[in-house]
Specification:
The chain has ten helices and twelve strands. It is an alpha+beta fold. It has three domains: 114 residues, Beta-Lactamase; 75 residues; 149 residues, Histidine kinase-like ATPase, C-terminal domain (Heat Shock Protein 90), CATH 3.30.565.10. The protein is elongated and about 105 Å long. The N and C termini lie far apart (79 Å). The structure holds adenosine-5'-triphosphate and magnesium ion (MG). Adenosine-5'-triphosphate (ATP) binds next to helix 8 and helix 10.
Length: 356
């Protein structure tokens, strides 16, 4: 009687766990599942009991994504003898699975399963922040080391100017000074772009912003065989409170990526970048759509990581910096892409409280 009561308490405790639990007996048959498991797998009670792990792979009540999870877990348990396994499903959710079959369990084997997507996101964000901080420190150090000799060179060239003038080579001075200034500008831009500062917001009509961005990139797009189109329904000029320089940087980053994706797609159809704007009351959405090469689900996951690039001369900073700028504006950035079809980025920004 006392043992029965204790078993009841143990079972209740397992039912209360915030992980899904599967208990297999010594013949490999599933003999216990808790409520959390049924909730996670979105199935009704008791349907799984009596099945072995291998039979679960084809269980009709299980969704396809979960059946493929069972396949992966079976491999991990039987082939690789793992006791802890992490996997990502087709909806990009992260799962942590633990396998316990110690000798003290009389041949029983317990699997626990937990959706750890939230923890993964936190881990990922921290990792990205760390990389950006490190990048900021490295770039500041490099910029400092390069700027000092440039300042010295600039000074000496100015001292040499009269001598160059005397031999009719004044033009050299101008070229050297221009090039030094350009190098300084590049360092300044790099420092700024790898460490986006707090936005200095001003109100601007979204349409004016798009017009200015298109003006900046139009000739490059033309040269690379890409047409830029603003969709008709986007004509309304909603006001946004933005740091104009930073937002232009984001739009240019995205549109340059689109052009690269179009050029790399090898498609015979003309390249097209479409811009659209939608307002949903409190929020404003800017869509940048291309018919470039598109991206796999895995690439879409890694996209915003600093230094993630698939281009031989890319830094992999464009999107991580863009994401940071948009977040600093109180907004967010989403991607939707299909390999061989194209990509759409959506920037969501709060609608401005501007006095017009
Ligand atoms: N529109 C797009 N279509 C397909 N792939 C894209 C698109 N935008 C970004 N990517 C992928 O995301 C990666 C990261 O982009 P990101 O802008 O951060 O860096 P990058 O373009 O590689 O380098 P940089 O911006 O420094 O030139 C790219 O290398 C590319 O593989
Ligand atoms: Mg880029």
């Amino acid at each position: 009687m006392a043992v029965d009561l204790r078993n009841h308490v143990y079972e209740n405790a397992l039912q209360q766990l915030d992980s899904g639990v599967l208990l297999f007996d010594s013949s490999g048959t599933l003999c216990f599942t808790n409520q959390e498991l049924l909730r996670l797998l979105e199935i009704s009670e008791e349907t799984l009991q009596g099945y072995s792990l291998k039979q679960l792979m084809r269980h009709p009540a299980l969704k396809r994504e979960f059946r493929s999870m069972v396949v992966q877990v079976t491999k991990a348990v039987l082939r690789h003898k793992l006791t802890r396994y992490e996997l990502m499903d087709v909806s990009n959710r992260h799962w942590l699975i633990t396998i316990t079959n110690s000798v003290r369990m009389d041949g029983y084997c317990m699997l626990t399963i937990k959706d750890v997507s939230v923890y993964k996101d936190v881990e990922q964000t921290t990792y990205q922040q760390d990389k950006l901080v490190m990048l900021g420190q490295i770039s500041a150090a490099i910029a400092h080391e390069i700027r000092n000799p440039l300042t010295a060179i600039r000074g000496f060239i100015q001292l040499l100017k009269p001598y160059l003038m005397a031999i009719g080579k004044e033009e050299y001075t101008r070229i050297i000074l221009t090039e030094i200034d350009r190098a300084n500008d590049i360092i300044y831009e790099f420092l700024n772009s790898s460490k986006p500062t707090k936005p200095e917001k001003s109100c601007m009509g979204i349409h004016s912003l798009l017009r200015e961005v298109i003006m900046l990139i139009e000739s490059e797009a033309l040269m690379r065989g890409c047409q830029i189109r603003v969709l008709e329904e986007s004509i309304t000029d909603w006001q946004v409170a933005i740091d104009v320089k930073q937002m232009k940087q984001v739009m240019l980053n995205l549109m340059k990526n689109s052009m690269d994706a179009i050029c790399e797609s090898g498609k015979q159809v003309p390249g097209l970048i479409e811009l659209a704007v939608k307002s949903t009351g409190e929020q404003l959405k800017i869509m940048i759509r291309d018919n470039g090469k598109g991206m796999s689900k895995l690439a879409q996951k890694k996209l915003f990581e600093p230094f993630y690039t698939t281009k031989p001369s890319g830094t992999g900073l464009g999107l991580s910096v863009s994401e940071r700028i948009i977040k600093n504006h109180g907004g967010s950035i989403q991607v939707d892409s299909q390999v061989g079809v194209g990509t759409e980025f959506t920037l969501t920004l709060p609608v401005a409280q501007c006095a017009i």
